[in-house]
Amino acid sequence: MEEVEVFLLAMKVASSLALAGIFSWILYLYGNLWHKSQRVRRKLQMQGIRGPPPSFLHGNLPDMQRIQSQATIAKAPSCNHSDQFLAHDYTDTLFPYFEHWRKQYGLVYTYSTGMKQHLYVNQPDLVREMNQCITLGLGKPSYVTNRLAPLLGNGILRANGHSWSHQRKLVAPEFFMGKVKGMVGLMIESSQPLLLKWEQFIACQGGATAEVKVDADLRGFSADVISRVCFGHSYSKGKEVFSKLRSIQKAMSKQGFLFGVSGFRDKLNFSTKKQNGIANLEREIESLIWELVEERKRECLETSSSEKDLMQLLLEAANTNSDQNLGKDFSKRFIVDNCKNIYFAGHETTAVAASWCLMLLALHPEWQSRIRTEVAELCPSGIPDADSLPLLKTVTMVIQEVLRLYPPAAFVSREAYEDIQIGDLNVPKGVCLWTLIPTLHRDPEIWGTEANEFKPERFSEGVSKACKYPQAYVPFGLGTRLCLGKNFAMVQLKVVLALIISKFSFSLSPSYSHSPAYRMIVEPGHGVYILIQKI
Description:
By secondary structure, the protein is α+β, with helices and mostly antiparallel strands.
C-alpha cells in the first residue's frame, strides 16, 4: 500500500514538474517573441515613427477591440434615398482603429497585433515607392495568407517569392488586353440571361416598374463570364464551386482573420466545428474542380482548336513544368489552386463593383442618361463590341469614380521578408505594411474638398489629372502585384453597364439600406435593391 502511495506521489510530483516545465517553456518562448517584436518596434521608433503603446503579449489587439465596439455602438442608422450617406467614410465603421490612430499619429504609424509589428502607410510618396518596389522580398503577409489557404490554396493570389513569380509568368498573359478583347462576345452572351430575367420581372408586374436585388444576378453573370472564357464551360457546371467558395468566404470573414493572434488563441476562438466545416468545403471544392479539369482534358483530346482557354493553358503549363524545386505535387496543386483563385477573385470583386456602380447610378439618373446617349451614338444596336468599348469615355469615368469611392479591395498589404528600403524608410524584416485604399481615395488633400462626392467628371482627362497624387488611386492594388484581372474587370464592367443602361432606367428602392460590410472585400451589407423600368 505504501509503495502505491509513494508511486502516486512521485507521479504527482513528476506531473507538476512537467507542467511547470511546459509553462516555463511557453513563457520563455513568448518572452523571446515579445522582445523580438519590441526590438523591431524600436527600429521604427528611431526613424520618428510613433504609434499606440502595446500591451504585453497582446499588442494593440485590446485597443482595436475596444475601438471597434465603440464604433459599432455609435454607428448611425442607414440613410435611404439620399446621396448624403456617400459622404460617410465607411472606414470609420469598418476599420475605426485605423482612423482613430491616423488622426492621432498621422499618415505613417506603427502598431502591433500580438507579436506582429505593423506599419500603416497612407502617405502618397511612400505609396509611390511601394508601387515601384520590385523585390520578391516584399510579399503578402504570411499570417494572413496562411488563414486564406482553404479559399485560395497556394495559387497566385496567396503565393510569395519564386512560386508567385513562376505562376504569374504563366497566368498573366491570359489577361493582357489583346486576349481580353477577344472575350467581349462571350461577355455579351453571358449577360443575356440577366437582361431577360429583369425584363420578365417587369412583365410580371404589369410592365411598369419592378424591384430587383441585383447582387446575386450580377454575381451569376460574372461567374458565367469566368466559366466561359477561362474554363470552357457554362456557369451551370461550375455553379456548385462558386456557391461553396462563397460559403468559405462568409465563414472565414467571421474569424477576424486580418488581425487575430495566430496560435492557440485563434484555435480557441474559432470552434473546431467551424474549422471542420471549412475543411470539408475545401475538399469538396477541390474535388469539383478536378472533375472539371478531367472533363476538360477529355475535351482537349477530342478537339484541335487553335484557340485555347485558361484551363487548357494551365494544363499545358503544369504538364511541361520543369522546375523541380517546386515539388512533385506542383502540377495538380498549381491547376486546382489557380482555378480556385480565378473562380473567386475573377467573379466576386467584379460583381461587387458592378453592384456599387448600379447603386450610385440609381442615385444619379443624369449619369444614366449620359451613358445611354453615348452608347446610342457609338453602338447603334445598343450592343458594344471590342472596337467601341474603348470609346465609351463616360462609362469609363463612372466606373473609375465608383472604384474610387467603393473599391472592393480595402487594403494593400505586404510583409517584408527581408530588410527593405522604401523611400527614406527602413522597414525591418517581419514588419507588415498596410495601406487603407478607401482612405487614400477620399483624402481631401489628394482629391480636393469634394473628395466624398460622386463626380465622375474628375476623370475626364484620365487618372493623371483627376487628383494631386495619381499614385494614390489604387483600386486594383499596386506594384508588381497589381491585379492581373484589371483589364478583364474593366471591360466586363463596361459591357454590363452599357447593356443594362441601354435597356433600363432605374432608381434606388426604399428597400435599400446603405451598410458597407467587409467580408474579405467591401460589399453592400444588405444587398443593392433598385427599381427598374424598361426603356
